[in-house]
Write a structure and sequence with these properties.
The protein has one domain. The strands form 2 sheets. Strands 1-3-6-2 form a 4-stranded mixed β-sheet, with no helix packed on it. A two-stranded antiparallel ribbon has the order 4-5. By secondary structure, it is mostly beta strands. The chain contains no helices and 6 strands.
Length: about 70
């Protein structure tokens, strides 16, 4: 979900925990970027029971950005 090279700096597209999971020394106010550890996965098709409006069923795992 983040188009970047793992192990390099990446800007977070948002602070939404469904999209990006910050790991490491994360301050109270999430930063704008860090080292991309995992790009995240998004499904091409999803056929599941209805979810709440806040949840994006296409997101399998959020991207991970490490704060050093």
């Amino acid at each position: 979900m983040i188009d970047g090279v793992e192990g390099t700096f990446a800007k977070a597209p948002s602070a939404d925990p469904n999209v990006v999971k910050f790991i490491g020394n994360v301050p109270a106010k999430p930063p704008t970027g860090g080292t991309l550890r995992h790009k995240g996965w998004r499904a091409a098709k999803v056929d599941l029971p209805a979810l709440s409006a806040k949840q994006d069923a296409a997101i399998i795992a959020p991207a991970e950005i490490e704060i050093e």
